[in-house]
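Hey Z.,

So I finally got round to the S-adenosylmethionine thing we talked about over coffee. Here's the setup:
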Amino acid sequence: MAPSHPPLRPAPGSDTPLPPDQRAAEVQTMFSRIVPRYDLMNRLMTGGMDGRWRRRTVREALVDADPRGGIVLDLGTGTGDLARDLRAAGVAQVIASDFARPMLVAGRGKPGLAADSGVTWLLSDALHLPFADDSFDAVTSGFLLRNLVDLPAALAEMMRVLRPAGRMVALDMTHPPPGLLGQVTRFGVERLVTPVAGWLSGSRAAYRYLPQSLEGHPAADAIVDLLRATGFTDARYERMGMGSVALHVARKPSDA
Ligand SMILES: C[S@@+](CC[C@H](N)C(=O)[O-])C[C@H]1O[C@@H](n2cnc3c(N)ncnc32)[C@H](O)[C@@H]1O
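And the result:
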């Protein structure tokens, strides 16, 4: 396979493009800094809709699967809300993985997410997963994709660690659709959600990061193309949140 060459993208809150390694370090630092208010920011910025989106993500991950014997990897788990919902849906074992240690520490302290809860917390980079091939029934992620410095490489890692016929389910913000709905959504994100994020996080960088993280991020259709190019089958997406959020779903081929 040809090596991927991720474009230079600005660091959170800056206009200066950084090489991928440096940008990943900046992303890691920024998420580590906003931990104390992260969950509250999610609730307020999405008008409380993120819970519903996560439960939809879990349902998609578990289509065709009996969760009771299952093992699911939640990448970029942050404070573990998706991991908690996977356990609540009956998944036997959830690996909650992130490269920002403070996020994991905060998550492990939340109700239902302690070390003996069936959730295993793991500090790891989504681009270099410490797992054997074909390890997981599903790989999920919430609001991770646009933070990755090399999306094709991350998709290839997800594909590698999934068992044949396993499902990749990724929830994230996306570029609003064209037309009136898109204009309304763009206005809402720029004039309401972004200022609220800045105010709550107490960080000008976080304030600027939200719209910036979408710059250079592929459109939802292009992510479907990337999934197919990685070798996934049945790749598709649905929009939620007035078009501002996309849920991508794909499957590793049964004969892979
Ligand atoms: C917006 S937060 C989402 C957290 C959580 N999934 C949620 O839905 O609330 C993005 C998370 O992805 C993590 N992240 C970004 N790039 C990563 C990478 N390469 N490997 C692992 N985690 C990463 C960040 O540290 C952060 O916790």
